[in-house]
Amino acid sequence: MRRTYDDLVREAETVSVDGWDFSWLDGRATEERPSWGYSRLLGERMAGARAALDLQTGGGEILAALPTLAPVTVATESWPPNLRLAASRLRPRGAWVVADDDEPRLPFGTGVFDLVTSRHPVATWWEEIARVLRPGGTYFSQQVGPWSVTELTGYFIGPHDGSSRDPEQARAAAESAGFEVVDLRSERLRMEFRDIGAVIYFLRKVIWIVPGFSVERYRDKLRALHERIEAEGPFVARSARFLIEARRYGGRPA
């Protein structure tokens, strides 16, 4: 039976958005994946590390799926529901999960890690990452690029500046903090939202796309977008992603 607008809204408004598992969207939304394969590359680097730190780990989904973790693996997260999920996934793998407030200073000593990673961090604290890395250590990250999903943001809040998170700005910040950028790639990727429930779930989970989003606040726009999707097909947007790998100056880890 075809679900009504109210059914779709009710379901998407009440389902849990904890963690960074997007499997609830299967069959309802799609997003192309970057060609470089972040998880595969991360697994290769993790297998060669002795002490690794994953910042803003979410629910620990990415680390938990890797075939091998470094002998010492630590993950940080700030949001309590995600902390619980990350601990349940990562502690059985021998990893430590640390509560952190997503602000410098990182709660670790100087030069204790040879690999620091992060997938889609809110911010990158280059000076702090340099501090906790050993000389020659690596920062490896997939990040959200500029003008990501700007079509959806523009629909709800109108014209806005989405030019932050530029890869070249990241390069400059890394170099200023004492890193050599050894890899930097970027891509724009097609997204499709096939029903209004998918839109609501995505905006509840990825809160920076439409800051302050709620169903009540945007009820009229949501109804209009539902009718548009029903009449014309999926709402299409473009996400932006970039991969950055940077090595801290000072030689390779001993």
UniProtKB/TrEMBL annotation:
Keywords: Methyltransferase, Transferase. Residues 53-140 form the Methyltransferase type domain. One of its GO terms (biological process) is methylation. GO terms for molecular function: methyltransferase activity. PANTHER family: METHYLTRANSFERASE (PTHR43460), METHYLTRANSFERASE TYPE 11 DOMAIN-CONTAINING PROTEIN (PTHR43460:SF1). This is Class I SAM-dependent methyltransferase. It comes from Nonomuraea purpurea. The lineage of its organism: Bacteria, Bacillati, Actinomycetota, Actinomycetes, Streptosporangiales.
